[in-house]
Amino acid sequence: MSDPQYHRQHPSESDVLGLAADALVFLERDVRDAGPAEAIRAEVARVSSGAATLVVVGEKKRGKSSLINALIGCPGLLPVEVDVATGVHLVVRHADKPGARAFLDGDAAGQEIDLAEIAEYAALDPVSQVAHRSDVHHVEVGVPSPLLAAGLILVDTPGVGGLTSGHARITMAALNRADALVFVVNGQTELTASELRFLVQATERIAEVVFVLTQTDKYGDWRTVLEKNRRLLAEHAPRYASAPWFAVSSRAKEDADTAARAGRDEAAARLLERSGFASLEAALTTRIAERSAELRLANCVHVVLSVLAPIATVDQRRLRSLAQDPTLKADVQSRREALHRLQGQDAAWRKQLAKSSRDLERRLRLGFQRNVNDLRGLVDEKVATSSAKVLAAELPRDLEAAVEAIWLDLDGAARQGMTDIVAEVERECRLEVGAEMVAELTVTRPERLTALPTLVATAPDNRGFLGFMERFMPARGAGIVTAAVVSAFTGSVMIPLAAGFGMAALLSGRRKRRTDLMRVRGDAQRYTGRLIAELTTEIPPQITATVEEMSDLMAKQITALITEQRGYLEAELAYLQQNLDTAAEKLAQQREQLQLRLAELNGIIGRGREAASLLASPGEVPAG
Amino acid sequence: MNGGRRDLCDLAVGLCDGVLPLLPPGPPVDAVGAVRSRLTESALRIAVGGRLNAGKSTLVNALLGRRLAATASTECTMLVAWFRKGPQNRIEVRLADGRRHCVSGRPGGGVPYDVTRLGAPREQIEEIVVEVTDCLATGEYTLVDTPGMDSLSGLDDVAMRVLARTDALLYVMPHPGAGDLEALEALRRQAGARVTAINAVGVLSRIDELGPGVGDPWVDARRIGATYTRLLSGKVAEVVPVVGLLAQTALGDGFTERDTALVRRLAGAGAGELDLALYSPDDFRRWESGPLTAEERERMLDLLGRYGIAVAVAAVRAGAGTGTLLGELRRASGVDALLDHVQRRFVAASDRLRATAALGLLEEIAAAAIRADPSASTRTAVDCLRQGVAAVRQHPMLRQAELSAALEDLASGRLLLPEGQAAALIALATGRDPAECLGCGEGAAPGRVASAAAAQVTEWRRVESGPSRVARRHARTARVLCEEFYFAAEAGPKGRRGWKRGRQSSPS
Known about the structure:
The complex is a heterodimer of chains A (about 625) and B (about 500).
Chain A: H1 13-30, H2 35-46, E1 52-58, H3 64-72, E2 89-94, E3 99-104, E4 111-113, H4 118-122, E5 136-143, H5 146-149, E6 152-156, H6 167-174, E7 180-186, H7 193-202, E8 209-214, H8 222-236, E9 245-247, H9 250-261, H10 265-275, H11 277-288, H12 292-322, H13 326-343, H14 348-385, H15 388-433, H16 435-441, H17 446-450, H18 465-472, H19 478-488, H20 504-520, H21 524-581, H22 584-615
Parallel strand pairs in A: 1-6, 1-7, 2-5, 7-8, 8-9
Antiparallel strand pairs in A: 2-6, 3-4, 3-5
Chain B: H1 7-19, H2 27-40, E1 44-50, H3 56-64, E2 81-85, E3 90-95, E4 100-103, E5 125-132, E6 141-145, H4 156-164, E7 168-173, H5 178-190, E8 200-204, H6 218-231, E9 239-241, H7 244-251, H8 257-268, H9 271-277, H10 281-285, H11 294-317, H12 322-333, H13 335-347, H14 350-372, H15 376-393, H16 396-412, H17 419-430, H18 434-437, H19 446-464, H20 469-500
Parallel strand pairs in B: 1-6, 1-7, 2-5, 7-8, 8-9
Antiparallel strand pairs in B: 2-6, 3-4, 3-5
Helix pairs in contact in B: 1-2, 1-14, 1-15, 2-14, 3-7, 4-5, 7-11, 7-12, 8-11, 11-12, 14-15, 16-17, 16-20, 19-20
């Protein structure tokens, strides 16, 4: 939404757009992968005028919402709580009259809501830590504020690192519309490793970051923490070494505003000075609000550079190989050998996989057998203690419930077992060739696994057990459920399991037999006998088959990944070998071509760096 | 089960002794020997873990009753430190290459703030052992302070390794979150699934910093503690809120009559003025017009923090002397609930926790030995070891450990039982000998124990055929436990000895 009031052509705009166009030409000509070109195009599309969007991010409980409330002078506007509060992202812009709109999932127009209702739409219930409403996508708030009127839109995000899943995803999605970032930490502790990782991830396409350390009124040693943060950034993330830091107290600013409104000017001035907000607001206005166009251009340059730099590195390597650099060959060969070991038939990971699968199968069968034995014991007791009429009515239902429980048990144990196996195999691979190689082979696993849905939640009224099963299982049957659950755990090896333990046939058979029993009028033992016989015939082979299938699939998947990697390396080695064999003049020709290409690339990169330094804030050294 | 506190550990030691001569020389023998010597120690090892700056060292000082661990506002503890009672005040520095030497600590005891005083660069130090002649731990447990996790100094591995070598865990967190969940999960994996709600308690620390940091935090703290007890159930037994700083001061020996005098002077200041000064630590430090000097103000903040100062001033205004004042601070810190948990869940179950840890380690040693050397002699030795471990695991007190999971489910509402059965389950899970487990009272005759056990077996069997899967699972464990009590009581003294020989004599 471009507001004509803000539209002005920035002097560097044509340079940067030209830069982006050159980069796109290069990529389309020489690089097959469409991803980087897409990223640049997306960034170029954003270079239209409008108010600058400033997204406030950080770990949970660092004071982001309080910060925004204090910046716009509206205490309590965004939900704040002692425990985690913000559940969706909130967009705050300047408006002549205060108002809010809630945008529900799938609703593009949004609906008007009262300012007091913001918490109901955006916040989590403090006790249960569950959102009050699960269908809200985001909330937009309009308030009159001089800071926002200068050309700023503030976006509050749910903190990362909380126990509610999905918050990190919401935050990263909100970052797509950011022109600049405010990264919030507080005085309680210096930067943690996970915070730094989040920072790097969040600023992938953003050039401008402002660091704010909040809650200086609560933590007396905040100056030490600030110093330590600066040192840590300089050491671990030098890109941000010269980014500006502001230490503020949102509480002091709020109290200052209250005092000013009550007419106690001296107290207000004192508190305002204590809050440190003056310099923060000034910085936000000059660095961001007034530079919205520059920020977008800077982000564009940033993306171009980050896309082209790795390509230049690869080209450099190729050049080295064309120059017959011997160390390169040794390098590639050793990596190839490591992968060869992994690929081998007697690789340790294969043995581990085979052994673990056998163990799992044994455990599952044993567990299943125990469950069946228990089932028989239960039935015997029931038969011994109930009358025939009661038996005819209750036994089939109890048996069904028991069978379903056995199946759920089996499924849960299988799932857990697979998880463990994946972990063990991964560990084995890591031992073999070192962690970096494995990092290339696998996708990070932990978050996925912790987000596993719990398969069974006991309903408060136990009578509803069967009803619960009907609810959870669609009419199609149990096989689908297994697939849905197991595919939620995609993990490091994508196993598209179609059917774990297909119980559909068994269950439908059960229901038919219930009517049989009514007719036969209670030949309970025979009925049970038949049931148990069927269970023990049908399920154990299913167990074996499924475990085998899962283990095969995993082995195939890992081998495929290894082979793919090895393929790349073989290709590189072949290229190297080719260069060694080729006559010197042909080599010289190729070298020249590559050098030209590299020169073009470096030219674009150089222009990009110049543009970045022009667009950088006064007094700041740009990164990259 | 003679009601002795070392039954399980003795059994495990017996097992080690039986297996040691059979194993070939090498790492397995050393490992089993290490397990055996750890079993003969009488103290439970409690590790204090958590992320960076969670308040671990402060809590350690509170539990020890002395400010031995170093604390600061940024990352401070970067070494693993074991604290125990010993014959003299000294620090043993153990290097990674196996060498050891001793240094003296801070004057009065404690870890020096300057790591170079330890006589070796930090990277070479594996761990330090701090011995003090007097502290609160009284030899029932040894505390281990660990480096904070998730720090950019990358000491997570160090912390994890130690946490896997201990018997119980206090996990400290000011704002429970995904990082803590991941750390607990990683710990569980590292320690071979031995770190669970059975031997881990969560501590919600620094609660005086909740909200704006002034005023009474306890209502909010209790609510947050309950919320995270529920969200982290199964991983930690309970999340207990604590003000570490006040606990450190109240239980320690640093607060003297002179400090009470300082508090009295503060109490003499005008109420409005004191409130203004307590607005923030900076304000308090700059309160030149107040009754204290700069140094004294710094000392008050260091000992009490703003919440503590408010509590102390209120107590003094109500006429408290030093003793009462410290009692008030202790009450405001909430540390007694934590001490109670430590006593009930850890110290009282010390035998079981240590034995469980040892058995887990022995199983790992067995697996590693077979992987390393699949020869026939190793195989026989490993089989013998595994059988021994399985036999010890049949002991009813270890079954009792499985019931702790039932307690968690009961507490979190996943398990619903009528009043009487719930009480019976709790008694089974927390009793220290069969009579107590079955609710018979101390020193009941075997006949009574047997009949009580039989009655409970029937009860639990009935629950086992009920519809709730959760109830069935726990009822089965309870029933098996009662059956074993029954057989043990029936068999009489001969039967009891039979346990030590691994259940050959009991009918089943």
